[in-house]
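Students often ask why inverse folding is considered easier than folding. One informal answer: many sequences map to the same fold, so there is more than one right answer. In these notes we will look at a single instance of the problem. The structure comes first.
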């Protein structure tokens, strides 16, 4: 695919934003100020102040000499970065690859995107008109390279689309500053009378390198397409992602569901073709007002079944607030795993965890309640009870060891054993009664002791002597004494309950 890039430049980014927020400033010359080296400096000026001669970098005292009634506004810390990041997120509706071009620009990788708007001319018009409608002055350029797009956006006379054949022809008459050079290099070029890119672009490279360093040649090559330059997107590009622009904003739950089904059909077709399934996915709904509504789902097993995944998302559609409408949907998969081909087991009588309907039910239960936690436990290679099991990372995980069945184990194990008061006749005999949470339990049957040594290579401590006991009402408990008997009643603990 042929690479195409777009550069957006906002000459009055910060002051345009203030004018949008405070419309009464529209007809007033004003500047933003910051403190630097013990004095106030102009960090941004609106168009009215700029037309009189006030510009960024000028001292506030000098600016007041031009306009005595000049309004001064203290700039918020990090304002430009916040505005650019917000604009970049909004531009994701036009392309998934958007990068910041500080302090006042955005770079878009528009490869393969413009045709969705009817071509690059319509694409450029759509973006520029949207910003100007919102009150932002913007210049835009489109070219085969980032450098060329940036050059025409900042130094062209109008919004320009450069074709491959006209790239050199368009760049050569421009100022050397269009190559994004350092101030030292620009002053040196100016002192030598080199006032356009064409005046030095054909000079021997050895001469240019000796006089101006490698950075000038790098910028020249990047602009001309002889050196690669890449967009570092504000959001990582997911390998499995689908986008759906809308001709008209969507405001209804039914419309969102139809859009989601269309995206899932495309996405799951790709996943199935590669023998994969999703475990986690995210739907981003880009609203007309610039805000993004997001819902996420997770599955217990890798799946590419459209019907099942759609049901999970449908449960969360009521969480989406479309406001004036949604103009772009993006569906991305953040976690992918290899999926078992369902057709191979179509005729098998699968039960338990091998039945896909079980995991589909668990997925739906979890989607209905965000606080619902469903876990499956598998045995772990430890004798110490607290470490003898672990939470499975996926529903069909195969354990490395089998469950221990040589001695009885409780169906419910306390996370932290709780102290109890026990009456026992003589050492190493099972208790005859115990008190737990204010109640007294008389024991009629007991089995034990079963000694479990502490895993000394993990942590030090005493061994435990466990007893499985049953009280007069038939309730069964798992008790233990910590260490050897020393006549103390506080050595005993309750650790679990049998069914």
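Output (designed amino acids):
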């Amino acid at each position: 695919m042929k690479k195409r890039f777009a550069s957006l430049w906002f000459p009055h980014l910060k002051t345009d934003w203030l004018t949008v927020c405070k419309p009464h400033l529209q007809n007033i010359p004003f500047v933003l100020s910051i403190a630097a080296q013990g004095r106030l400096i102009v960090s941004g000026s609106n168009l009215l102040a700029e037309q009189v001669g006030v510009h960024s970098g000028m001292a506030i005292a000098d600016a007041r000499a031009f306009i005595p009634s000049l309004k001064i506004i203290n700039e918020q810390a990090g304002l430009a970065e916040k505005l650019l990041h917000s604009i970049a997120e909004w531009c994701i509706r036009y392309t998934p690859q958007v990068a910041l071009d500080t302090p006042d620009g955005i770079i878009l990788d528009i490869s393969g995107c413009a045709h969705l708007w009817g071509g690059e001319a319509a694409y450029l018009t759509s973006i520029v008109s949207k910003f100007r409608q919102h009150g932002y002055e913007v210049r835009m350029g489109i070219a085969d390279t980032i450098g060329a797009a940036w050059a025409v956006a900042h130094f062209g006379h109008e919004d320009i689309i450069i074709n491959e054949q006209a790239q050199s022809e368009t760049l050569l008459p421009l100022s050397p500053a269009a190559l994004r050079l350092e101030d030292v290099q620009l002053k040196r070029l100016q002192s030598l009378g080199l006032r356009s890119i064409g005046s030095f672009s054909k000079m021997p490279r050895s001469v240019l390198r000796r006089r101006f360093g490698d950075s000038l040649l790098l910028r020249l090559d990047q602009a001309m397409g002889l050196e690669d330059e890449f967009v570092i997107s504000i959001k990582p590009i997911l390998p499995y992602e689908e986008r759906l622009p809308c001709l008209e904003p969507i405001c209804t739950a039914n419309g969102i569901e139809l859009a989601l089904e269309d995206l899932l059909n495309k996405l799951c077709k790709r996943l199935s073709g590669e023998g994969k399934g999703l475990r986690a996915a995210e739907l981003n709904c880009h609203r007309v007002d610039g805000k993004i509504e997001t819902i996420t789902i997770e599955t217990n097993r890798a799946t590419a079944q459209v019907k099942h995944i759609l049901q999970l998302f449908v449960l969360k559609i009521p969480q989406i607030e479309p406001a004036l409408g949604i103009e772009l949907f993006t569906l991305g998969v953040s976690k992918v795993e290899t999926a078992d081909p369902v057709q191979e087991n179509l005729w098998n009588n699968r039960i338990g965890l091998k039945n896909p309907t079980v995991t589909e039910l668990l997925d739906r239960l979890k989607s209905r309640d965000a606080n619902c936690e469903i876990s499956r436990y598998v045995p772990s290679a430890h004798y110490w009870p607290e470490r003898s099991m672990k939470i499975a990372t996926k529903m069909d995980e195969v354990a490395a060891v089998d469950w221990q069945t040589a001695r009885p184990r409780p169906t419910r194990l306390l996370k932290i054993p709780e102290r109890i008061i026990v009456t026992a006749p003589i050492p190493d005999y099972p208790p005859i009664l115990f008190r737990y949470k204010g109640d007294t339990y008389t024991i009629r049957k007991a089995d034990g002791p079963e000694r479990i040594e502490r895993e000394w290579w993990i942590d030090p401590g005493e061994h435990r002597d466990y007893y499985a006991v049953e009280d007069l009402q038939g309730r069964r408990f798992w008790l233990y004494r910590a260490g050897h008997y020393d006549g103390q009643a506080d050595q005993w603990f309750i650790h679990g309950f049998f069914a």
